[in-house]
Amino acid sequence: MILNTELEYKGNLFPSKIVKYEKNLNVLSFTAENGVVLEVTVRRDSILRFRFTTTGIFENDFSYAITKYASRGYNHLEVTEDEDNYIITTSKLICNVSKTDLRTSIFDAKDKTLICEDELGFHWEESYEFGGDVVKMSKTAQPGESYYGLGDKPVDNNLKGKRFENWVTDSYAYGRETDPIYKAIPFYTALHHKKAYGIFFDNTFRSFFDFCAERRNITSFWAHGGEMNYYFIYGPEMSEVVANYTDLTGKPHEMPALWTLGYHQCKWSYYPESNVKEITAKFRELQIPCDAIYLDIDYMEGFRCFTWSKEHFPDPKRMVKELADDGFKTIVIIDPGIKIDMDYSVFKEGLEKDYFCKRADGPYMKGKVWPGECYFPDFTNPEVRDWWSNLFKELVEDIGVKGVWNDMNEPAVMDVPGKTFPNDVRHDYDGNRCSHRKAHNVYGMQMARATYQGLKKFSYPKRPFVITRAAYSGTQRYTSSWTGDNVATWDHLNIANLQAQRMAMSGFSFVGSDIGGFAEQPNGELYARWIQLGIFHPFCRTHSSGDHGDQEPWAFGDTITNVVRKFIELRYQLLPYLYTAFWRYAEEGIPILKSLVLYDQEDPQTHYRNDEFVFGEKILACPVNGANQKGRRMYIPRGNWYNFWTDEVVKGGQEVWVDADLDSMPIFVKEGAIIPKYPIQQYVGEKVIDELLLDVYYTEGKEESMVYEDAGDGYDYIKGRYSLRSFRLLGKKKELIIQQHKTGKFMTTYKTFKLNLHGLPFKIKKVQVDNEDIPLKDLKINGDNTLTLKKEFTELHIVG
Hints:
Elements: E1 18-24, E2 27-32, E3 37-44, E4 47-53, E5 78-81, E6 85-89, E7 93-98, E8 104-108, E9 114-126, E10 133-140, E11 146-149, E12 163-166, E13 183-184, E14 187-192, E15 195-201, E16 207-211, E17 218-223, E18 228-234, H1 238-249, E19 263-265, H2 273-285, E20 292-295, H3 316-325, E21 329-334, E22 338-339, H4 345-352, E23 367-369, E24 372-375, H5 382-390, H6 393-399, E25 403-406, E26 426-427, E27 434-435, H7 436-459, E28 466-468, E29 471-472, E30 480-482, H8 490-505, E31 511-512, E32 514-515, H9 524-534, E33 540-542, H10 558-573, H11 575-588, E34 593-595, H12 596-599, E35 613-615, E36 619-621, E37 631-636, E38 640-643, E39 649-651, E40 654-659, E41 667-670, E42 674-677, E43 691-697, E44 701-709, E45 723-732, E46 735-743, E47 752-758, E48 766-769, E49 772-773, E50 786-790, E51 795-799
């Protein structure tokens, strides 16, 4: 018997010295003596891509995360060498590549300070079980370095001292520190010495990040397969890092329809039709604004996707139309599991066309979900995505459904270890065939993409609305998301706040939580406090499992109903402000929610703050996050801020006590801000907006504000039919000047602005509009410091 002793466990392997260097335009290639190749691509002056192979050959360069619309180009690129390094210089960065072992160190090109350097750098371990490599990277943590991002991790904002895993997982009733959960976003932003950079590790295998947890001064990331392929993104502003990452992985493909930013009501499950109508009628009767009602899995025939229960919903088209007439858009759930049933057309067609995932040896991937035993479409196959998108024709075009939420798309499988597909399931991966080890983290993203394509097709000329539970980097291009099956506890209110901030920091702003908690039952106080937080999340929806009791705004008695109504009304008033923030996100990648560290990274007090956040550019909010509290301490960022309720001006850069009884919450407005508001509506489009209210907050100094508007749906805005108003406010001791500049061809329905002046330190003596004195009586100046004027003005002087 001959024993082969060649295959030995080698442990960590490292690149050796560079023996060859090549430059092809912006791609620099370094080959080591032992066959390792490092390819550095200069994508922009501030973005470098590092890609390693251990075999001398790179796989097909394909990524679901990187968008074809990402910006490219640089102003300067020079490669020199000295005794120890190859030196790559752009206008923003200097990158040294060591000649002995391919380790890199990156410096700011302006002041030559060190930003980021490899510790062991790239290393790998052969994976004997599956073939290929376990790929690893370690970097030296700089003094005082902090880390942020990584998607929906339910932990404090600052990730230092922690370790995480990226493997999209159905985590019912997850808790603080549960890891992994629903999303895999392998991107973080690091901050030290007032400078920020980001690292996006574009690898869809199960991956890990360690932020100085195992070794005190070392941060590392690694994956159980695939390539060491990461992007280095330099700021030095944190907001630039996030915006550039969002540009790289894709901004939303279109603005959301305005109604999607309204309040939504959901439960597992509203059925039959009479129950749905009862709920929607109650909203209108109690005058609580609401734009969307959701149907969970019970609307289907035996949980078969794309069917309706004849018993519960005998005439869905009529019902959906009647709901629409009352201002409600109908949203339905669609899961990936397709019931094994030869009498079910979707299953039969999928089977005939060979669209379902298979195991390594050929049989179909069979798993149990709500309908019982199911097969699962391979959404990584473009042909399957096309087929899937066409299945929405009846739901959307014929019946009139306005949105779809994709659930269970991790993919979740019941009653099996790991709660998902086995590793040996095969996927097309857009022609790059692979196992589930590689495709798992993108499965939900590709399902959401196919759903989005269907809704875009059949909702036209209106905009599509899709929500997904599972996501990988780049999913923000197609859909909104929620934070999964949370619990009705005070701690989960805090977790929801952290997750929404962290998702926004990870390029994905259109996110909210199940208000009130999905599992278990909140009391009225918790529900009211959660609504107060939820109205500041871009996606605003109450959702509950229904097993534990009712969770509608009126379920907790009149006192709570009144508080909830008050805050949902505030949400509707702030719609033009939120829509403007969304426009900035879709245009520039600027997050809608800003953790305090993202808002002001130069203030070290912000680096560990969790509760407070800036909504848009000018509003500071902080939830009351414990029972029986009549207020709370919170940190006010630098600058001066108006208390939203009292107009008292608070100086920032300090922690203060803020009173907040149950019908209030700490909200502040930055001085100098101009906040646009709509009248309260029961649903978007209920009223013709005949006047735009502008809340003007006086400051001695300058501030700029914007209002973006368009038709609120449809695609005309892409052709220039939008209205973007920029306001420049200049405050002096005895004068307030507001200049307006408008671009875009869209004509708003209102003709006038009503200015509501806050904190004016003088009595108005004279008003001048475009160099003309206007009699005060013509401006309807009231004793409450409001005045009405035509929207076309370019310069307004209010003189004391």
